[in-house]
Each structure stands twice: as structure tokens, then as C-alpha cells.
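Listing 4. Sequential folding, example run.
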Amino acid sequence: MLLLGLVACGRSGQNYAADAAAGAVASPEGAFLAYEHDIRIQLDAQRISARVKAVSEACQSNRFGDCAVLQVGEEGGETRSGSIRVRIAPKGVEPIIALAGEGGDVASRNTHAEDLAQQVADTALTQTRLQKEHAQLQAYQQRSDMKVADLLAVSQRLAEIEAGLEQANKDAAQQRRRIDTQLVTMNFEGPAGQRSRNEIGKAFSEFGAIFTTSIAFVIRAVAALLPVGVVVWAVGAVVVALWRRRKRRKAAAAAR
């Protein structure tokens, strides 16, 4: 895993948009790097839902190039948050991040890349090997002197090779997709001060529920421990009574 530490703290969306081109990450020629970007954006809580929708629409309309929405999530309530994950052509990474951060703060950004060179090479070797074996068996299958048993064995092996080729082609396509496009995950949250106020308000609103829950817990604990306490008290009373009786007997014996 190739790590590229790109972290931006406390930068406004407008400033970030101006610097977008400078922050672009391009894969070197001939490299097989799959880039992923994780962005944390602080935005007024009331605007998060609309911003997630705007980013989703921009992606689905290919506004910044080939793009696919992979995941969208929102959490309501007083501490609103949202997230959207897209796979987009490299040239669209910076514009879509700028759109997401417009009017807010890009609190942090982390970009990393996975080197797929070995996986790509292994998949290509598998494809070549299977294609050669498939061609050889097809030629062998055309022979007129083949026995029925051999023909059945060849047909079965051809089916296995074709299934393997199909899987290898899928793997190659997925690897190519990861190299040709980049994964961008954008997480939205309210500003720190706004989140603090919301947390205080939430704590006050939950005071009654927390208080009654605590009282209920104490009642249940007392109810659960009361039988145990009664048994312990009874055993203790019996032990004390026996000890006193024994003590009196010893005192009476000593008086004689």
C-alpha cells in the first residue's frame, strides 16, 4: 500500500476549490495505482442533506466526467451528518471535492494508493495460459480419431477453462476500473461549536429518560439482591444464636 499523506485542515471550501488543481494526484505513466481519497468536511448541519444530494446528482449526470455513486448515507436529529462515496475519473476528483466543500471547511483529507502491478501481472499470466490451453484443446478436439471418452474429457476441461477465463476477464476488468477511476469518500459533519451545542441540548433533552432509567435500574438491583440479603441475614442469625448458646453452655460448665 502506497501512502500519500495529503491532509488539509481548517480550509474553506472556496479556498479549497481554488487550490484543487494543485492538489490533484496523477498516476505515473505505466503505473498500476488504485487511488482512494477520504475527505472530512465541516458544513452547517442544515445544509448537509442538500449538499449530499448535489454531489450525488453531479456524479450521476457525469458533470465532472465518468462517475458512479457507490454509497449515500445520512443521519438526522440534532447532530446531523452525511456521507457519499463515488468512483470517478481522475480529472473529476478535485472538482467534485471542491463542490462538496463549497461554503464549508475541508477539515481533513487523506489520499492513498494501492499498487496493483503484481495483481495485474498475475491476471494477465492466467489469461494467457488459459487461452493457450483452450486453443490446444480445441485443435485436439477436431481430430477424427478421438475416442468418445477422450472427447468427453476434453469437453469437460474446455468448460472449466472457459469458466476460468470468464473469471480472469472479470478480475482484469475490475483491476482496470480501479486504476482508471478513483474512489472518493466524503463525510459531512456540523462545525465543532455547533456539534457541542447540539450535544448539550441533546443531553438536557435526554435527562428525564436517563434519570428514570437509572431509578429503574436501582429498583431492579434491589429486587434482585433482596432475597439474597434475607438468606444471608437468616443464616447469620442462626450462626449467632448457635454461638451464644455454645457460649452459655461453656459459662455454665465453668460455674460448676
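-- end of first protein; second protein begins --
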Amino acid sequence: MQLLNKKPESLLDVKMHYCPGCGHGIIHRLVAEAIDDLGIRTRTIGVAPVGCAVFADTYFNCDMIQGPHGRGPAEATGLKRSKPECIVFSYQGDGDLASIGMAEIVHAAIRSENITVIFVNNAIYGMTGGQMAPTTLIGQKATTCVDGRTAKQAGYPIKMSEMLATIDGATYLERTTVHNNAGVMKTKAAIKKAFQNQIDGKGFSMVEILSMCPTNWGTRLDNPSEATKFVAEGMMPVFPLGVYKDACAADKK
């Protein structure tokens, strides 16, 4: 019998702690599949700072390190510079990367550090209880803006891919989604490309992935379509999908 699907070698066979409907489990599998496809598992090191994915070392079957809130790109920089033969990725949420870690991600891009960043954008703080994040939408409710975010009080959502695209050192930036099958397939391709860029020594790559957070959005856990609908109708108009920078493609022209 032909085997059509199996657990990626780069994922451990353990139960995940993520909430029902959360996109982290999907994204973990896509990262693991990309690592397997490229044959880099034994030389890959992942960095998981504070956030819902801080326990990613429980799931990925490669070397992992936990770090302080927001410092993933700085840790990844140190690992890559001291072990250039290794493939290093940082796995971060929006509260981690776009808030306390803003300086780290910006300067890693400015230096064009040869690392891969997986940026999970679910427009809210997940692990700490649903507070407003830098990516929370205008009008979206959170525990720290119970009537909805307003531009006057908290400013506008930060668009990380668009912002980093203005930095010369950024090599590859793409925003994808995991709210539907087509998005999942495009996300895997983007992750694989980001890792390949690092293998080829091309510099800084980041894949921003729009993801579901039913628990903190307050959508029904027994009806996942509510959360996927929020991604499609709420998040995607604010955070349009697409490639925001691909210096490697530009070099080939």
C-alpha cells in the first residue's frame, strides 16, 4: 500500500497544548515538513521566545532554545554567527515580535542576518489572556480594549511585512494564511523558500502568517468557521496577502 501522508520526522509524537482551532499546530507541521523536505533537521536550531509557542521545543524534533520575550532575532543572530553551518529559525507571535521585540526584528533585518523568521499574526495576545496586540484591528475587542481598539487611543495596527520591506537588508518577506487549504499550501511554499534562502546565504527572510485564535477572539470553539471567517473578512483586508519583498527574484531579472 502506498503511503500518502505521515507525521513529519521533524515533529515529535506528542500531544500539543494549543487551544481548539488555533493555527499554531498547522504552522508547526508546515515548518517541520519544510525542514524534512530540505533535509536539514540535524543541523536546524529553533528559537521560541515568550508566547503561546514558547513550548515549541516540546514538539519540534530538532535543537531548540527558549528565550526572553521578543529577543528571538537577537538569539538567532548569535546562534547563526557562532554556528554558521546551522540553519536557525525564530518562531514568534505578534505580541512578541511586533511589540517588545520590535527593535530586535528591525535591526536583524537591517543587518540582513542570515536567519529565517516565522511570524504568527493572530491580532491578539494569546498566552497572557487576550490583551490588545500591536496588530489588533480597529474596532476589535480585547481584554484591554473592551469596547474595541480605536486609532485615537491606541493608534493603528502595525503592518510588519510592509514596514520591513522598506529596509534594504530584508531579502524575502511574504504574508500568507492558514485559514483555508489554499493558504496552507502557499504557507508551506513560503516557509520552504525562506529556509532555502538561508541555505543559499541570501540573508534575512520572514514569513508572516495570519492565524486563528478562537479562544481569545471569543468565537465559538464548536464552530471553527467563525474564526476562519474573521481571518478572511477581518484580517485580510487590513493585512493583505502577498510577497512584499523578494530580492532574490529581483537579482535574477
